[in-house]
Design brief:
About 35% of the residues lie in helices and about 20% in strands. It is built from 16 helices and 19 strands. The strands form four sheets. A six-stranded mixed beta sheet has the order 5-4-3-2-1-14, covered by helices on one side.
Length: about 550
Amino acid sequence: MKIALVQTNPIIGAFERNLRQVLDWIRKAKRDGCDLVVFPELTLCGYPPQDLLERPSFLDAHDRALADLVRGLDGITCIIGVLERRRGPGKPLYNSAFVLEKNTIAFRARKRLLPTYDVFDETRYFEPGIMSTVFPFKGLHCGLTICEDIWWKSEAYQANPLKDFAVGPIVPDCLINISASPYHHGKLQERQRVFGQLCRNNNLPLLYANQVGGQDGLIFDGHSTVMTPAGTLCRVAAGFAEDMLIIDSEEWDKAGQATMVDSVAEVEEALVLGVRDYLHKTGFHKAVLGLSGGIDSAVTAVLGCRALEPENVLCVAMPSPYTSQQSIDEARLLAQNLGCGFEIIGISAVMEAYHLALAPLFTGPAEDTTEQNIQARIRGNLLMALSNKFNRLLLSTGNKSEMAVGYCTLYGDMSGGLAVIADVPKTMVYELARWMNRDREVIPEGIINRPPTAELKPDQCDQDDLPPYEILDAVLQAYLEEHKGIAEIVAGGVDERLVRDIVRRIKLNEYKRKQAPLGIKVTTKAFGPGRRYPVVQGFVE
């Protein structure tokens, strides 16, 4: 039999649009002679719908779309992720997969493992299923699971859905998993490792259909996959784009692609998709950003132009008395290389107006970071004015390293509607810049090679206030992503005073991050809904 794995890019709650998308792919699968078409988790409503699931009108609209799909299905069997209502004690919904054939719901599987870690909160809405589903199709028996069901770990869950397949009355001939699995750097290798072990342990092929697209700060990367019973890759769909992967059941035991590579190139693709989908799905088509002549705004500008086309991106340089001519020249050169809009708005006169207005109250205290922050806030206000006037979304340009330790200004450079690289460590920002220049010099080499500086005072460098980024990023990864304590990080060879100062800054600046624009998640632990820390706390380790 021929099976189509379809990775769709839904908009949450856009039921008519999502249904049209599903029907279009079904027609393509039928035209290509497929017997079965498989869609991702919660395809009709999109994932994750969050508290929209508490609205009866949302559930009603979902059920109407599902009914239309069932009525319109003919000549092909369809597996699709849906919301299933339930009665009785417990949560009111199942996260389910329906097998639709001959205009009926022939079989159903209910998600058994409901994740609550990182960005997931499924027990808030769903009741777990209690049985694993095997259904017959074209002489084969298919084990049907949903996302987390094949990520079982003994320390996280008691029940193992796959174990039931092995001891059940009918042993499946293949495993099918529908998923909405968010991307982070390293996820491709992690999936290949987990899926490969699963296939080897059960001596079964795996057919995996994953959602694609940006949803708020999450990126779903697609890469729908067929794994052989030996745990090797057979076929992989496109990454970061809608696609349909067709596999014949006679071929799913044949190794094909050697491995999936997850390099900085995939991070770039994820960020581009995140920018494009966030703007387009929220009704924006144009963007504006401040172009300082530094590495962060340069990388953000390249990502914005790739996502939206250069003619839809406006870059604005806002020099102060402390801005070097090199910064202005290289910002202009970058804009020329990209082909995007470029304007210069000097802020010296506005700085002087602030100085005159505050002088009566500032008499006495010496200048400090207050005056530096005023510059950042002037720039933020100017950019927001351009955003409001011309309906351009303001892209914030701060990186994860700065966000972690508060090396950023609230209501200044943190202003914006989307923080494009807020989950990209500074060292990875440099990797991205070099990758972007792989074919030709897009980002001027002067921007990449010069020491990073905010240029808010004479002769300023980031390392005046921060440790070298190689050290800072290593500590941040250990503390934020690996959850290591201070003692464990120090035992790894880092100076204790430095580690304690970094951790102090992380805790101190939680209030800033609570007010930051939405950021695109590309690491295992981003600042945002997947990291829930109180602003007020006394824990120091």
